[in-house]
Structures are given as C-alpha cells and as structure tokens.
Amino acid sequence: MSVQLQGNTQSLQHIPQGFHCIVLNVGVKDNTKDFVCIFSDVQCNAAGVFTQSRFSGPSVTRSRENIKNGRAQAIVAISKNANVANGEQGEADTRTIIDEVANRLAIQSDDVLIGSTGVIGRPYPMDKILAGVRTLSKASAQSDFINAAHGIMTTDTVPKYASIQVGNAALVGIVKGVGMIEPNMATLLAFFFTDAAIERDVLDAMFRRVINKTLNCVSVDTDTSTSDTATILANGLAGPVDNVAFEAALLDIALYLTKQIARDGEGATKLIEVHVDQARDERQAKKVAKVIVNSPLVKTAIHGADPNWGRIAMAIGKCEDELDILPERTIIRFGSTEVFPRKVSASDLTQLERLLMDDTVYIHVSLQTGDAECTVWGCDLSAEYVKINGEYTT
Questions:
Q1: Choosing from 94, 117, 155, 187, which is the catalytic residue?
Q2: I want to staple 280 with a disulfide (CB 3.0 to 4.6 A). Which of 210, 261, 263, 370 is the partner?
Q3: By C-alpha distance, which of 205, 246, 215, 163 is closest to 47?
Q4: CATH, domain 271-390, list 3.40.630.40, 1.10.287.3510, 3.10.20.340, 3.40.30.10
Q5: Does 350 qualify as catalytic in the annotation?
C-alpha cells in the first residue's frame, strides 16, 4: 500500500466508485473555478471536524448540524467568499444554496454539507451562485477530483490531492489552504472520499485521530480560520476493508496533504518540520513544537538561512507554564546537528547555513521530561507573505 503522490500527475490512479464531481465558475470573484459539488450515488457514512472559532460562518454551523447523524451524500464548496459575519442574510443564503443543490440532485437537504472559503464580511453574489446551481446535472458529472481540487483554491499556488488503494477500496483526498492556518481542529477545507464500508462510529473516531496527528499539526501564520472544515464520506460500495489498514492509508494521505499545505504557505520558500520528543505528554510536545514553528523570529531566520538557534531557545522559553521544562535538560538540533547545549563552532555554523538553504528544514528538540512526542509542520516567513495579505481583498 502506498500513497500516489500528486503534484506532477494529470490523473488519479485510485478513484472511489460512486462519487461524482461538478466544478463550475459562477463568478464569485473572477473567472476562475469557484463552485464544487461532489456527491455519491448512495447515502454515505460521514464524519467531520470544524473550526472552534467564535466567528465561524454558517457553512460551518450548518454542516456541523447536518453531520450530527453521521450521514451525508454531497458536499458543496464555494471559494473566494467565506460568507462569514453576514448575519441572518448569510445564514439564509447558506440554507438556500443547500436546498437548491439537494433539489437538483434529488437528495435530502440535511444530507448536503457545505464549505466556504475566501474573503470575510462580504455577502454571497446569490444571483450568480444560484444561476450556477440551477445548471447542476447528474448527467454532466465526472469523477474528476483533480478538477475539484482546483475549484476549492483561493490563494493556493497549486492544487493539493492524493489517492490510495486499500484492499478493494479507494481513498482520495483534496485540500486547500495556504494562509489563515493555525487549526484548532483541522484546516480550511479538506475533503476525503472512499468507497470502503466503515461503520459510522469507527469512521468518526478514526478520522479524529488522523486529523489530530496531521491537519491539526500544521501552521502557517498562527491565525485560525473562521471556516475550517474537514470531512470524510464513505459510501461502502467497495465493501468492508481492514480498519487498521484503512486508518494507516488515511494517515498517509492526510500527512502528505498536510505537508503540501505547509510547503505552499503564502509566500513560503521552505517547509519547516519541528519534532519534539522526550516530552511529558503529547500536549506538551505539541505546545512546544507549535510555539517554535509559529515564531516569526524563527521563521525569518530560516528564510534567511541563519542558524540562530537562540531564537528556538527563546520560543521554548515562552512556554512559561511548563515548569518541568529546564534549559539544562533541553537539547536543540538543526537536523541531526546539536546546537544546544553543545557549543557550536565556526565550521558548524557554515555547515548549518548550507543545511538551512534546503527547501525542507528540520528542527529537533528533546525536553527530557517524559517519553511523549509530536511533529508539526509550517513554513518560513517572507516579504511575499506581507505583500499577498496586504493586497488580499483588492
């Protein structure tokens, strides 16, 4: 079993049966693809996790409600507009879109999930969206998940997708996200589809475990989106699979896509991987790893290939409530090269500078407070990030 790594391929090898994609440009912002509908021939077992933001949009609140019963049959994704902070009108527009899509597909409205991403505080252009929805036809649908990955993009520079075979079943995942990423559950939009038959409770527990190890361990800019949505639909058409093997496959795909999100972070030139081990528990390990990968000073040092390990020490020191973390027990490394407490020579610095010029930079910290560990992913911070976000709505 291996993930079909994507990015330079034009087709997916493993496609789950019974799922169909419709991708449109309805003119939400420009002439790029902005409306995606993926549906199954039959009702699916489903699981989802969503942002914990207090300003979450109606796409989140409605999808959270619809998936409570562990069932779904279709997902709608709208890009370039988050439909957040639009009050009762935003809620009404979301209901209208779901009802119209359900009517076109001849399914129940509460079997439709919706994700929305883009500018906050602007209402949907409902006339354009509904005109597009009313063209939906099952007969025109294709199993083109790569096209769907294009359709959910906003400031992403590349579509992100992957597929894998598990027994007789297939699993495919598509995600989008390069900014406003500090997940408190998952990250922006992430959709997984499989024809494996998996019980609802098992699927939900499995999905949450995988998300916690992958999409919940990525950060670009410390900002939690109002629209974070991650879901999985399993229609069962391929029959049962080994649950352990399926979870391993789901973890492989989610990890691959997590790294793609971090590598494609707005303005990013390098992927940063931070591994913290010998921690008291997983919570402590993740806290320390996140504070390192989120530090603007660490991120800018890595962008400039400056082996300033003191900034990593500074970041760890900000975990002031972790009283069992002691400088005299902490070990900091770039890659496999220890930089603290070992003294770094001039020749070491030259070697480290070359190491930090790679497109992937590894940081390894051992706390010696226990035996737990966690790995997180992020990216460097460049002037391009400021430019992208300084001009975002224009």
A1: 187
A2: 370
A3: 205
A4: 3.10.20.340
A5: no
